[in-house]
Amino acid sequence: MTALRACGVSELELDTPLRVELDGVAMAIVKDAAGDIHAIGDRCTHGDISLAEGFVEGDTLECWAHGSRFSLLSGKPLNLPAYEPVPVYVVEIDGDDVLIDPTVIKEV
Description:
Elements: E1 4-8, E2 18-22, E3 25-31, E4 37-41, E5 55-57, E6 60-62, E7 69-71, E8 88-94, E9 97-105
């Protein structure tokens, strides 16, 4: 599969997750304070909660329900109660388009 348009760069607010669904795969897209754009699986592995409703701090996304923080770079949980990682997707930028292939998980 080729990368699909997830959103526009101009649609992303700093440190504010955006939930998108591409080909049935839910993900949270984040533009961090450094301006880097990340895409990770949208479901917290602890409580099946949308991570796009969480809080961004640096290069982490915190689940609002139970406080687990996930690395935007690796998808790994940084604290309990979550202990399983979420997938991280490769992000491509083409002009204002954020492109992601939901079938390709980033190797970390």
